[in-house]
Write a structure and sequence with these properties.
Blueprint lengths: L5 H63 L2 E3 L5 E3 L4 H27 L5 H17 L7 H12 L4 H14 L5 H18 L1 H7 L2 E2 L2 E2 L5 H21 L3 H25 L12
Antiparallel strand pairs: 1-2, 3-4
Helix pairs in contact: 1-2, 2-3, 2-4, 3-5, 3-6, 5-6, 6-8
Amino acid sequence: MTNGLGPVGDLIFKTLGVFVQMAALLLAGVGAYYAARINRKNKIADVVVHCMARYDQIAQQKADNERKYGITYDESGKITCNTPDYEGYVEQNYLYHRRYWGLKSDQFDYWLSGLIDCETISSWFFAVLQNFEKDTLHDNCFLTNWVKIRKDHIPHNMSFVHLVDGIFDLSNMKRNNYRKHLGVAFLLRDMERREAHFIEFSDIRLRSLRLRGSTMDDYITKVIRLDRRRHQKDNATIPTSLALAFDAREAARRNLLSNAVEGAGATSLASPPPSH
């Protein structure tokens, strides 16, 4: 059956039909991709809520154990057990840390699978760093229990072990919280690169579009840019009177330095004083 336009018209209609089918397939693929992105975001929310519920349960068990065994802390962080069964408390505290580090290992794996966003995982592992910071060294401390449990994670999750060890090292460095939080993000970025093959396996791509979303490099860039904007905003909102006072103080300092150079000789500040 023809359309009355002859062979040329038939060819044009067939060509248009092919283009329409290709466009429909492309739109269906893009629609499926964005539907998967939406489903991924919903799944992330479910996983985050699941992890928070697990943590709340573990923290409640720890509080119940400390109340049961009459655990108190002095100003130095030293533990006092007000019941004779201290060994029972040590055992229960070890089980708490096993559950705690098991949760952290699962969170790490969820993140590598794209089920936790970079901001959330950075915040959760920064909390690990803070636990190391406020911990005091004794037989049943946070670090001691990590050392005991660490060997259980080495055979199957060495990247997680390297991450926690790096966070402990970072906790002993003299840096402000912003730099330590950024340091945790850099450690996570290193683990992301180390586990690149696993991430590629668990990811879905549509050319340049990635189901996984942003990388830790993207998150670090975002954090640095936001910090720079915040500093620029802070500098822009300095009161005029304070800015004038600062400029006047700087001018007085320069004049004082200039007078000192003229009075003492041009080489006295650049050269060491003569020996006696």
